[in-house]
Design a protein that fits this description.
The structure holds 2 protein chains of 2 kinds.
Chain A (H helix, E strand, L loop, with lengths): L10 H8 L2 H28 L6 H21 L3 H25 L1 E3 L2 E7 L2 E3 L1 H22 L5 H18 L3 H17 L4 H21 L1 H11 L7 H13 L11 H4 L8 H33 L4 H25 L17 H17 L11
Antiparallel strand pairs in A: 1-2, 2-3
Chain B lengths: L38 H37 L7 H11 L6 E2 L5 E13 L7 H11 L5 H8 L6 E7 L1 H10 L4 E10 L7 H4 L1 E2 L5 E3 H5 L1 H6 L4 E2 L4 H17 L4 E8 L5 E7 L12 H4 L8 E2 L4 H12 L7 E3 L4 E3 L2 E3 L8 E3 H6 L3 H11 L1 H10 L24 H8 L5 E2 L1 H12 L3 E2 L26 E2 L3 H17 L13 E11 L2 E15 L6 E8 L13 H19 L10 H6 L2 E4 L2 E3 L4
Parallel strand pairs in B: 1-7
Antiparallel strand pairs in B: 1-2, 2-3, 2-4, 5-6, 8-9, 8-20, 10-15, 11-14, 12-13, 16-17, 18-19, 19-20, 21-22
Helix pairs in contact in B: 3-4, 9-18, 11-13, 11-14, 11-16, 11-17, 13-15
Classes of the chains: A mainly alpha, B alpha+beta.
Amino acid sequence: MSGFARNDTSVIGRWWWTVDRWALGALAILGAFGALLILAASPPVADRLGLDPFYFVRRQFILMPLAAFILASVSLLSPKEVCRLAVAVFIGSLILLVMTLTSGAEIKGARRWISIAGLSLQPSEFVKPSFIVIAAWMFAQARLKRGSPGNFLIGGLFLLVIGLLLMQPDFGMAVVIAAVWFTQFFLAGLPLAWMAVLTVMAGGALAAGYFALPHVASRIDRFLDPATGDSYQVTTSMEAFMHGGLTGRGPGEGTVKEVLPDAHADFIFAVAGEEFGLFACLAIAGLFAFIMVRGFSRLMEENSLFVLLAGTGLLVQFGLQAIVNMASSLHLIPTKGMTLPFISYGGSSLIALSLGMGMVLALTRRRAGLGGTP
Amino acid sequence: MTGPGPSFPAKGRPARNAGIRTPGRPSHHRGHKLGRLGGTAKQALDTARNRLLMTGALFLIAFTVIGARLVDLTLLRDGHEPRLAQATGLGILKKERADIVDRNGVLLATSLTTASLYANPRRILDADEAVEKLKSALPDLDGKLTRSRLTSGRSFVWIYRHLTPRQKYAVNRLGVPGLYFQHEESRVYPHGNLAAHALGFSGIDHHGLAGIERSMNDELRESSDPLKLTLDIRVQSILHQELSRAREEYQAIGGAGLVMDAHNGEVLALVSLPDFDPNNPEDIDDEASFNRAALGVYEMGSTFKIFTTAMALESGTVGLDGGYDATEPIHIGRFTIRDHHPKRRWLTVPEILIYSSNIGAAKMASDVGVSGQRAFLRRLGMLNAAAIELPEVGAPLVPSPWRKINTMTVAYGHGLAVSPVQLATGIATMVNGGLLYPATLLPRIPRKTEKDERPPETGEPGSRVLSPDTSEQIRRLMRLVVVEGTGKKAAVQGYLVGGKTGTAEKSARGGYSDKALLSSFVSAFPMTAPRYVLFVMLDEPKGTEETFGYATGGWVAAPVVRRVIARTAPMLGIPPVNENAPEIQSEMMVNITPRGPSLASF
């Protein structure tokens, strides 16, 4: 696998020998699965919406090289540069997030999208990775520097982001950010008593979401008791896995994509299950697990608290989204519209995930020769 | 790579607060070589690593669960039995309305899922061809109307409602695109109009509009268990058949009939004629839907003399061996009370009943008095609407004010109008040992254990109206009427029928008409230990050649009673007895005249 000599000290050469090539490979395979499944799942959806059958395929395929480019170039950065990039992205996406509230297009009862130069963008996707990196920096600062205002600052920033997301409303995104933030706080040495308090608060927030947001309540009710309402989507999704069996019905032979409105996004895992079977699904789940384990094990050796917290946060966001998406399709949890990283259709999601995973690759690069930290 | 690593933002910033740190603890803000890691930083990193391990373990568990679930769904579940069908199976089985069954579980009303055919005209390729094909499957389809609907350009038009499975199959076989089925539920009464007035019917929106369907609407909609009624559809069928035959034979405008369990008030049959087919509620007219058995109230005539006699015997104003002078009609105010077949002599109490003497009954009631009579009739449930579980229940027409003249006319069944259900309930009380059981269509819960038994209040099931002795005397007298008196045509060999005729002139403008009669017969059987009360009434029957022009209860209603008892008694499990057996003779013996004993079976 060497295209570069060991003593090649060019930027690319050094990158190649220090980056986590196994994780990189796994991400590439995930992307390939994504391309395949978009081809399988999206034409019927586009057809139903009265679009050209390859509308989604074309849009996603145009973005894929861009995503690969972003992933690769971000992974070249040093931790310091990652942090700076995160601050820039965070400020930009926060401004856009505020703008969606005023000028965003309302889709299905929520304002999440904003149109910039003809491209529609979901700023909340970009808030996620950038906020995680900034939070990691502040947690590290607070932990290592007595008297620094990190804890208060990060708390205030957290409430601001969550508040903006709930105003859209985007409950799922808020839950993901809260979960990641909580994990980082936990890793940064949150006392156990505080953990108990925050757990209770998180429970309270979930309950408040249940009572304040009717669509959240309805989803949870339907999960607990399918008879209370329309559980058509998840029932169809489960049937898809049953029909697929061990080896699947074969590419293009699936039927769920004809009926599920979100076959190319939230329920793409069900399309994979029906057309490619258990092996493919286990492979996809395994790839996600592999990337997380690789990342975690490399972070274990890390000596920088900031890198450890940022890397963990980004990986947790990535893994959590994957788990929520797959578990929704399998009716293990109430349905929550969340994309399956690198596989579901969605431009903002793909670019933002490339950014995030590029940061992970950058943070997990071996810097041992430089004493563990650059 | 250069830069200070974790604390790079602090690069170039002097450790301003380094001074307040505990001496000896090295500052960590610069220099991050492994060997130079400070205590706080090392501690923080250790904590973070430990907790990172825990986080990683949690994620591995989550991925394992997802993998297990994948295996479970794809391999361990049968994909050919979709969960959808299982999950919603219970929901489909829950009908809009529960079934109704009779006391033996025979289906009286049910809800069937039927298919209705509709079309999406925009998907119809060739309307003419579609209509032609449809006509072959549904011959009575209106082709012209269907064609105009199919070419209407709308996206939904009904073609045919409530197809049979066979028709649905035929339409499916046509293979015409653009045709679809909508499942609907329709209420079906397999016995048609047999128990129409008891069952009632329900409307298109599955709400009960009459009868039990209406009064038990909530129960029927909420429960999925069948609702059991006290009706016995076999008895209902026989009563319906015989009453219909008599109504036709005597050209009566209507009729009513009732079979009741004498010991608990359960109604086994309830017929009102004319009736209707609840399967077609839109065709029902007011006349047919009128329930003569429960909603109609009538001046019942002589059947009331049973109540008058029981009241007199119970109050002790006269005994069975006593009597009254019926030689002369009674003149009171501008009224004259006379007998139809005057004997013009002194009559014993049994004779008053056998010959149906109005004069005798009026005198008997006079002796008891106005208030005594009112109290008695109130206890017997004659002054309040029957408690039967039907929305169509008539309240009695009670004389007001209730003077002496009213007491005299009520004594022989005029001036107080009650429903057949009320009358049958009263007769059951007369013969069952004196206990009142309000009529009911729902099986009566068995009485509580004797321990916590308290005497039931007036009107409650089981409240005492008569002493067992009086009830026993009334049984003998009712038997005597069939053996010796006006009810001979009701006799059925072996079943010890007892009863009383009633022939009332229907009130017309300004008085009574002797042309329009209400002829009835109320009976109980077997009289040694009565099990059932049977009431039959014909509204305005006309006499025939066979009845010599008579249309009285004894001529037109008593034969119906005879036929119904002859057919139902064996079915109801009543063993026939030898009516001439000495023990039965003595049990039914009544002294008709003061001169000497007479056997009721003579």
